[in-house]
Design goal:
alpha+beta; Jelly Rolls; eleven-stranded mixed sheet; 37 strands; 27% helix
């Protein structure tokens, strides 16, 4: 199909098209309809190839086919190849495509010009975007500037079903408002390159069950200046018994075959009914509602991960986690495919009902990246087993077009976050094309100063310099676990360019902290490390220990990458600079009185700021001299060590620094994991949080599902089971279980060659380990 695609585009059998006679707008919905005939027998392998800016939904002969454009760059577009053989028929066929053009930057999207290209191949080009395509703007969705969910996510939606003329039906007759599509005109006159989606399409699951856990009436004070989210968050709620709202034979479970009839006597001019739905656990998916109602009934829909006074936090600062659906007359089933909700709770405020409102379903169709859970971890301690399973679910909830930080607030691919997630994914899924695609997206965001954007594809106002250095480590780990050298070679020009820029910026053997509006010198969400600039320029950090330690880490990874590509001179240069930088780091940041590394060379900060992250990085990277490391590690392990505590996001560096002496600190590390992660479980977590104190500060918008907090998955497999590759692709691997209080553990570690099965028994210094592995792999070290 790839060859056919290239031929179709180059010969212009398919062309980029857009609305006829319409200018570009932000937040624009457009409808495209193509009627064609098939005289030949249906080819079961028939496929629809499609690419859009920004997103799409496809129906064929009145049936939903698929949706979802891959997150990409405007000048380098991915296309999907959708199997449609089962939807086609001889005779007349009707292809309908709803396209959404965002037209404004967010954290997953870079503003491009609107356009759609498609062709249907069934033993040749059967239908293609062009003059045979009819189009019009979509009136049912509110277009143009509407409130944003957040600056990271783009716009909320409002859908008026009264304006939906059921245009996707086979029997629909197009009126005069449908016009021929025009060729899309790019302002830069450049043609877009196309490549096949590098990862699998997302799965849209059956409806997730929901339970009505609270109900009542709400009263709203009219205020046109407020967003839907703000109105919902400030509506006055008055609880009622279920039978008062849902009827004497009430049912609280959705979906419902018979439907739930609301008491229409509860509605008046400024009053309506509210329902609070619990999905029972964190979910990520698209909103779906099915009901029977009067025309003009209004449903405001809020979603969230946590409840405050038995209501969803619909509004948080400038964020708006609420949308609106306006009903047409009769039975209707609506799904909004363009925005994923990450939530556990959904709140409905229903108003303007006159004679009836019967609810059959309201909630999510879960959307998941299709993976096989190849890795397994079992142990005699049920708490650790529970932590592992919830961590696996957290990881999976944060996987869609790419790894994302959270499915609720941002859904963005961050370099640092995704490095944690990829490490867990190697053990959980044994999948390599997915992290490879993410690493590639990051590489495409590289700028001329040698720094990538902090997330991709995006053009945020600022970037985080240390994240670009983590990318080197992430690329090396991808190579180590997958063994794919070809991809490394593709990335090598970026490796060289970035290193060249950093080396040119060195002052002696240290990297000064980048200054300017573009740079956010963030390391983690902890005091003194969150990149907040001092008001007095004289007190700004000029040299940061974390940044230099991350560069030390990058040089170590780059040396290995160059060696793998047989570029030995570059490898030697990286090793030499790394060692020189290590000595310079120790000289510049080590405080002999404090017996620790200061965060900065800035004198005021040097006297007062010492962080667990800095000490952990010094140990993890090997920049800390051997004669100093043991004492520093011992202090880092102390509960009251006097350092600024490390957060969940970067705790992997602390744990791995301590596990450099597994016989001494293994028990402590896994006891701390039990303590930290069980705290979330005991507070009703069904996925792991962005930060351990999220429960206390969630009003500020902290998430209750964050991919970086899945790291126990990695630690259990790599240290409790003890399996780590020592040569790329696990051609050689070690089995060295760390000490812990877990006396029995067993499981599976996936590799490119197959599964490694491992079983360990015993604690402390008396560990017995048995391993079976595929032919071709060599167990290098074992107990």
């Amino acid at each position: 199909m790839d060859m056919l695609e290239c031929k179709a585009i180059e010969e212009q059998d398919a062309m980029w098209i857009w609305l006829a006679g319409d200018g570009e707008e932000v937040n624009r919905y457009a409808q495209f309809r193509h009627e064609f005939y098939m005289d030949k027998p249906i080819n079961e392998d028939a496929a629809l190839c499609i690419s859009v800016d920004t997103d799409y939904v496809v129906w064929l002969n009145g049936k939903f086919v698929n949706c979802g454009q891959y997150d990409d760059f405007p000048e380098n577009k991915a296309y999907d190849e959708l199997p449609v053989g089962g939807f086609l028929k001889q005779g007349k066929n009707v292809l309908c495509i709803l396209v959404y053009h965002q037209g404004e930057n967010s954290y997953q999207y870079i503003k491009g010009e609107p356009g759609l290209v498609y062709f249907l191949a069934s033993g040749g080009i059967t239908a293609a975007s062009g003059e045979d395509t009819r189009c019009r703007g979509c009136r049912a969705y509110k277009n143009g500037l509407v409130p944003k969910v957040s600056r990271q996510l783009g716009f909320t939606f409002e859908y008026n079903a009264k304006l939906d003329d059921l245009w996707t039906a086979e029997s629909y007759n197009m009126g005069s408002e449908w016009r021929k599509a025009r060729p899309a005109v790019w302002s830069n006159k450049a043609r877009r390159t196309l490549y096949k989606r590098p990862v699998k399409k997302l799965d849209i699951k059956e409806r997730a069950a929901a339970t009505i856990i609270a109900q009542g009436v709400f009263r709203r004070i009219p205020d046109k200046a407020k967003t839907v989210a703000q109105k919902m968050y400030t509506d006055f709620l008055s609880t009622r018994l279920p039978e008062e709202i849902l009827g004497p034979d009430y049912k609280c479970f959705l979906p419902s075959c018979t439907g739930i009839s609301l008491n229409v006597e509860c509605f008046n001019s400024n009053q309506g009914i509210y329902l609070l739905l619990d999905l029972d656990r964190e979910e990520a998916g698209v909103f779906n509602i099915e009901l029977d109602s009067d025309s003009g009934a209004v449903i405001d829909v809020a979603y969230g991960e946590h409840l405050l006074d038995l209501r969803v936090m619909a509004s948080a600062g400038e964020r708006n986690f609420a949308d609106r659906y306006i009903c047409r007359e009769g039975r209707q089933n609506f799904t909004h495919y363009f925005t994923r909700f990450g939530c556990r709770y959904i709140q409905l405020h229903i108003s303007h009902v006159k004679t009836r409102f019967i609810l059959y379903h309201a909630g999510l169709l879960p959307v998941e990246y299709p993976v096989d859970f190849k890795g397994e971890f079992f142990c005699s301690d049920l708490l650790h087993k529970k932590i592992c399973s919830v961590a696996e679910r957290t990881l999976h909830l944060c996987m869609h077009e790419h790894y994302e930080d959270t499915p609720w607030r941002e859904q963005a691919l961050y370099i640092m976050d995704s490095r944690n997630q990829a490490l867990c994914g190697y053990y959980c899924f044994g999948e390599y094309e997915y992290p490879e695609a993410a690493v590639s997206l990051m590489e495409q965001s590289l700028k001329s100063d040698g720094y990538m954007e902090m997330c991709a594809p995006a053009q945020p106002r600022r970037t985080i310099p240390s994240f670009s250095m983590v990318w080197f480590q992430q690329l090396y780990e991808l190579y180590l676990y997958s063994g794919c050298i070809d991809f490394v070679k593709q990335m090598l020009p970026a490796v060289k360019m970035m290193l060249g820029k950093y080396v040119d910026s060195l002052a002696g053997a240290l990297l000064p902290t980048p200054q300017g509006e573009r740079y956010w010198n963030f390391y983690e969400w902890a005091d003194g490390l969150d990149g907040t600039e001092a008001k007095d320029a004289a007190t700004r950090m000029q040299m940061d220990a974390p940044l230099n330690l991350f560069m030390h880490m990058a040089l170590n990874a780059a040396e290995k990458l160059f060696k793998a590509c047989n570029e030995l001179d570059d490898a030697a240069a990286c090793a030499s600079l790394r060692d020189k930088m290590g000595r310079a780091i120790h000289t510049a940041f080590w405080n002999e009185e404090e017996k620790a590394y200061a965060t900065s060379t800035c004198e005021d900060v040097r006297k007062s700021h010492y962080a667990e992250l800095t000490q952990a990085l010094a140990l993890y990277t090997g920049a800390c001299p051997r004669e100093t490391a043991q004492d520093l590690r011992a202090r880092l392990a102390c509960k009251d060590n006097g350092f600024v505590p490390i957060t969940l996001s970067y705790s992997i560096f602390k744990y791995e620094a301590l596990l450099q002496e597994p016989e001494t600190y293994g028990v402590q590390v896994f006891d701390e994991i039990a303590d930290q992660w069980s705290y979330m479980l005991y507070n009703n977590a069904t996925s792991f949080w962005e930060t351990i104190n999220a429960m206390d500060i969630f009003r500020q918008g902290w998430s209750f599902c964050h991919g970086w907090s899945a790291i126990p998955v990695y630690l259990y497999h790599a240290y409790i089971l003890g399996i780590k590759p020592t040569e790329p692709g696990f051609v050689k691997f070690k089995a060295e279980p760390a000490c812990s209080n877990i006396d029995r553990a067993w499981g599976v570690v996936p590799t490119p060659a197959g599964k490694i099965h491992v079983k360990r028994d015993g604690t402390d210094g008396n560990i017995q380990c048995s391993v079976t592995h595929p032919d071709g792999l060599l167990l290098q070290t074992s107990y």
